[in-house]
Design a protein that fits this description.
- The protein has two domains: 114 residues, no CATH class; 241 residues, Farnesyl Diphosphate Synthase (Orthogonal Bundle).
- Helix content is 63%, strand content 0%.
- It has 18 helices and no strands.
- The protein is globular, with a radius of gyration of 20 Å.
């Protein structure tokens, strides 16, 4: 970091630092978060940056599995006020290699500033974020340590992976949205029925798009169960063929169902909350167009071959902005964007049974027991590479 940049950072507020660092760690969220109502921008930015710190710890190649678990445990302790953020940052920053982005180095070094923002949020916001990061850190670590080119055994394992890297974020956002608006809170139960599916649709789209980049790193998140039906052994896969493409189309169809649930989720948000709807709709639109590209490009060998062009992204933003308050128009736009995209049969996607991060009368943090606690459970996959591009979709 340059001396001028360091001086600038030290002279701005913690909230301004969040806005400063966000584009460096996520261009996508830097575009969508400003669309949110002002009352939500700080908390959503804060939540994303905390999740990104957990990602950075888990993804750092210089850390052994034991070391990454140690730092994740300490990071969760920091969020619950059991350890100073500055002490963790001081120990962690020297361990980060050049493989970690400069902006991520900066974010970890300024962890204390981000955590101060967390501590100034209201109790419901703070608890939702704490629990989300705790669940994500535990599940993400377990899956990353057991990744391999053989993929995950079952479709249900893919569901689990998507939950721990994205679905819990969807649940957390529901809590933030409901805390912001009494009108949205009236739909809390309906939103919770859809939020994990919303996130899984985005996450699965990333996984399908980035399948070859993930495999180049020694990881695969595709379910062998689906590919076995088409005579494909993911562990020995070297290139795509018609059988592989057929299995991919099955998964595209499942992701398509989840994105339809994402649209239903968004339409539960009152039309007057145009910015909040845009925050959701831009992500949904991009994902649907990406699935369409995947379906239209059998045998693709790199994510860039199915990347949605900027012109299509711009059109998506313009059309959703025009139609943002009109549910009929939004459904029609979705159908047009999804034309030709496979759709899984009814009943293929089971409703999520994950408990909400918070209840109407949430208990203290000490009462919360996530399904994955850090370092206490393993998943039935062989160990391999640690990195996945398709992570934290929401």
């Amino acid at each position: 970091m340059s001396q001028d940049a360091a001086q600038m950072e030290s002279s701005i507020s913690d909230e301004a630092y969040q806005d400063y660092i966000l584009p460096g760690v996520s261009r996508t969220f830097a575009l969508t978060i400003p669309e949110l109502p002002e009352a939500l921008r700080t908390s959503v930015t804060n939540a994303y940056l905390l999740c990104r710190i957990a990602d950075t710890i888990e993804d750092e190649p210089a850390l052994s599995p034991t070391a990454s678990l140690h730092f994740l445990q300490r990071f969760v302790a920091v969020l619950y006020g059991k350890e100073p953020a500055a002490a963790l940052a001081q120990d962690l920053v020297p361990q980060l290699s050049k493989e970690t982005l400069p902006a991520e180095h900066d974010l970890v070094a300024n962890m204390e500033r981000v955590v101060r923002v967390t501590n100034r949020l209201d109790a419901q916001q703070r608890l939702a974020i704490q629990r989300c990061v705790e669940v994500m850190a535990g599940g993400m670590h377990q899956f990353q340590q057991t990744a391999s080119l053989r993929g995950v055994p079952r479709l249900s394992d893919l569901d689990d992976y998507c939950y721990y890297v994205a679905g819990d974020v969807g649940q957390m956002l529901t809590e933030l949205f409901c805390g912001y608006s009494p009108a949205i809170n009236r739909h809390r139960a309906e939103l919770h029925e859809l939020d994990v599916s919303f996130a899984q649709g985005l996450q699965m789209t990333n996984i399908l798009k980035d399948v070859w980049e993930d495999r180049a790193r020694g990881a695969c998140w595709l379910p062998q169960e689906v590919f076995s039906r088409h005579g494909i052994d993911l562990g020995s896969l070297s290139q795509a063929d018609s059988r592989f493409d057929a299995a991919m189309r099955e998964l595209v169809g499942i992701a398509h169902v989840h994105l339809r649930n994402a649209l239903s989720y968004t339409l539960l948000i009152p039309g007057k909350e145009a910015g909040l709807r845009r925050f959701c709709l831009w992500a949904i639109g991009l994902a649907v167009l990406t699935l369409r590209k995947i379906a239209e490009t059998p045998g693709f060998t790199a994510g860039k071959q199915v990347k949605v062009p900027r012109s299509a992204v711009a059109v998506t933003r313009i059309t959703t902005n025009i139609s943002v308050r009109n549910n009929w128009m939004l459904r029609r736009l979705f159908e047009l964007a999804a034309r030709g995209v496979p759709l899984a049969p009814a009943g293929t996607v089971r409703p999520s049974t994950r408990p909400a991060l918070l209840t109407a009368a949430a208990g203290p943090a000490s009462d919360f027991q996530p399904e994955y606690q850090l370092g206490t459970r393993s998943v039935p996959i062989d160990r391999g590479a640690r990195r996945s591009e398709g992570r934290s979709a929401l």
